[in-house]
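User: Second chain of the day. Same drill as before.
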Amino acid sequence: MAERVRWGILATGGIAASFTADLLDLPDAEVVAVASRKETSAKAFAERFGIERAYGDWASLAADEDVDVVYVATPHAAHREAAGLCLEAGRAVLCEKAFTLNAREAAELVTLARSRGVFLMEAMWMYCHPLVRRLKALVDDGAIGEVRTVQADFGLAGHLLPEARQGQLPPAHRLRDPAQGGGALLDLGVYPVSFAQLLLGEPSGVQASAQLSDEGVDLQTGMLLSWDGGARALLHCAINAGTGVTASVTGSAGRIDVPDGFFHPERFVLHRDGLDPEEFVAAPEDGPRDSMRHEAVEVTRRIRAGDTESPLVPLDGSLAVMRTLDTVRERVGVRYPGE
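Assistant: Same format as last time:
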């Protein structure tokens, strides 16, 4: 492998631009190629970020021998096709969340990666965030005793987005389009669910209720997850209401509150019974709170070590989250075309 890990970017939307900007700040990362279904989009993206090669199709990027790892940044509905194409060609893959449209597609990707011995990881950047890792370590070490409840929410006011028309997102917008895996759950709900399962594992019971759009996607969804040991998680996501994006973990001996942006926190507060609250703050070297550099660093670390999976974002954990999301959709009556 070259001195620097060589990245290919598949798709040219906003999340691809943000991730590419973070990659360019890493000394051991190099972005060598970008692909889009439209050559004009790929060329514009390449010019913007100083990328050498721009492809007007995904297959050319997958076949590029100078690419060590591909970052798949398409909408959820295209993850199976795009990531599968790259894995078939022997390229390592970092695939945006939600991992795929459903658990079946996720299992197909995992089976393909494992059979080929190729690295695959879901881009669940929350799991790689230093402060989230610190929170998990405290919980695992028993700082708040046995976990009893988890609460987390992630909602955005869709009517305030630049794309909104007459007070709401247009029906063709990806967040409202069933063909693109639209709705609050896969785009935003994956964070509260992943947060709860990071701490408690896969639930044994799932209840859910949702407000659906005319197109049949969820505008907001409330979830109650349960575990055989008695723990419960109360979770919420929305694309029609801007929530606090907070989280709280309560145990038998205390509580941890994440007051803002729980999936990329700047701080959290540990409350232990009988003790003064203790605040944990992100370190300056962690970089901006919205930086996705930590997941890129993790991918680099694993590829250099010859690993095919990451212990921070294990594939079995991604599969478990997708199973939960499938069950939630089943409970609320959301199905995507072709399912």
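The first helix runs from residue 14 to 23.

User: Great, on to the next one.
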